[in-house]
Amino acid sequence: MAKVIHSRGRHGLSQHIAVIGSGVGGLTAALALGRAGHRVTVLERDRVPHAADPDEAFAADRHGAPQVHQTHGFLARLQVVLRDRFPDVLDAVLEAGATTMPTTADFGEPEAGDDDLRVLIMRRTTLEWVLRQKASEQDGVEIRAGVGVSGLVGAPRRHGGIPAVSGVHLDDGTELAADLVVASNGRRAPLPQWLGELGVHVPETVHESGLMYLSRWYRWTAGLDGLDPKLGGDLGFVKFLGVPGDGDTLSITLAIASNDADLRRALADPARFDLTCQLLPGPNQFFARGPIEPLGDVRPMAGLLNRVRRFLDENGQPTVLGFHAIGDAHTCTNPLYGRGCALATVQATLLADSLDAHPDDPAARAAMYEAACEREVEPWFHSAVQLDAMGADLNEGAAAPTPEAAAMGAVFAAAATDPVIGRGIARCMNLLMTPSELMSDPAFLARAVTVMANPDDFPLPERHGPTRAELLDSLGSVAA
Ligand SMILES: Cc1cc2nc3c(=O)[nH]c(=O)nc-3n(C[C@H](O)[C@H](O)[C@H](O)COP(=O)(O)OP(=O)(O)OC[C@H]3O[C@@H](n4cnc5c(N)ncnc54)[C@H](O)[C@@H]3O)c2cc1C
Questions:
Q1: To test ligand 1's pocket by mutation, which of 195, 328, 334 has the most ligand atoms within 8 angstroms of CB?
Q2: How far is 37 from 35, CA to CA, in rounded Å?
Q3: Would residue 206 count as lying in a domain?
Q4: Contact 255, 212 (CB under 8 A)
Q5: Residue 425 and which of 59, 122, 153, 436 are 20 to 30 A apart at CA?
Q6: Residues 354-407 pLDDT 10s
């Protein structure tokens, strides 16, 4: 096994950690590791400008993370991680204009844990703005913007030992040495290539969602009071969601099959996008409740996938030392389920805990971290793949659902009226319990079995809205 020599940083037993990328994952990791007493250098390729407030942060271009300007919902798990691990960050996002909302109106008699079931309402750029401020104020953390990483420095596999990473190559041709490198450079992180250069194979499992997003932002002052909380829906050929943000903003996303060229062309046009939103139940209420001012054009984003990468071999041994991946660089899930930011923050805390448990044993640390990811993150990858398969009728005329999908659909439908199922599904969809934990809850299971035995008694709500042909017909009459 390669010997890894730890330099001692200015915090005594601390390590020097290079964090690649300053998205939600990188900034949360920097905060957690800095607070644990380590010296952290965050390397961010984008020249993220200083922003005085959330609106300035929203206006900044983020070439390296274009999804920051797509609709983001934040699951209850994110609120819980912030509350329990970074309470000052939760306070600061609320101060910056974020609000929290219960996930569902009524679960009957209150139960322990119901307080957890609150989602955060804010722009993704506001979350990142607060995290950036907190990380840059943190003793021991330095954020270098405009500094890209082009590869990893390390010793390739020799005599059967495990390759070890000892720093990063920067875009300007220099190197930065580090005791530990954390890759949080997002969904496009070329980790198989970077680690391949050190002789490390990174197996990955990929399931394309087949979807693309088209989103538009608006300024809107009518507020949340009286708003029907059902803000989204699914007509098969289009899935749609309107999400209020902080600062009187809201965004609406239309998700369509990425190969539906006609619809894509029509919806990329702002006037047709707005008209479509007015025809869809949920988003239409924003247009019916007072003035609404567009903030920019329609923003398309494709290439949405589910992907998990593995850093242990078949014997559970780490394939690389001195290196960990978090966030989308490690595990990506279809954004439709809104899991990415919560999972990135969970991974940042799992990494900090693993380093705390094994400061001097990189192999034990890697094994602990990856086992924790397998337990707490990977189930959401599998669940996203399964949900994609259940909702894969992206085109009109798709086949009827399988009996299994119909039975699962009935359980989701029953969530609206059955508090046991409703609470269970809400906890699961908000990442507060895994699907297998949910399925081993006797009370939930008993109710679900009854529902699945009689799926016809729990029909999915009828779909309201135009057919694809009707929509294209209406859009054809709008002047571009
Ligand atoms: C269309 C879309 C909608 C989404 N909606 C939601 C949602 O509703 N809710 C939710 O929770 N999640 C959502 N997500 C997922 C969420 O955005 C990601 O999971 C989250 O951004 C992951 O954070 P990260 O830190 O891993 O990566 P990112 O936020 O992508 O950050 C990566 C950072 O690394 C930098 N970088 C990249 N390469 C380099 C390099 N070589 N050197 C230096 N810096 C580099 C980038 O500039 C960027 O700042 C959505 C994603 C997409 C694509």
A1: 328
A2: 5
A3: no
A4: yes
A5: 122
A6: 999 999 999 999 999 999 999 999 999 999 999 888 775 544 445 566 777 778
